[in-house]
Description:
This protein is mainly alpha-helical.
Amino acid sequence: MSYQEVVQPKQYSREFRRAACERLVAGEKVSSFSKELGSPEGSSIRWKRQTLIGAGRAEGIKSVEADELAQAHRTIAEFGRARGGQGGGRPVQRGGARQPKGDARLPKA
């Protein structure tokens, strides 16, 4: 077994995942489905859960929203690197001190 086979997860096409999710949401057992697919049950559980969230049948962040958020984080990190910083960090005040978490802390009495 090569290094890539161990480290890299299997990649499935959108069409394959869509068909798989339809089967899982229709009631097929995750254990038997995962065994047939040869993938970890956790992957099938995540696919099913994300499908239910996308359909509005479960609470959570839809894939589209998560993708947009991830893209925003990448853009912020790229902007920070372009400015010479590490990117993705919090703004620095004069003197190098970091701002407190969201400036939401109450002043000490």
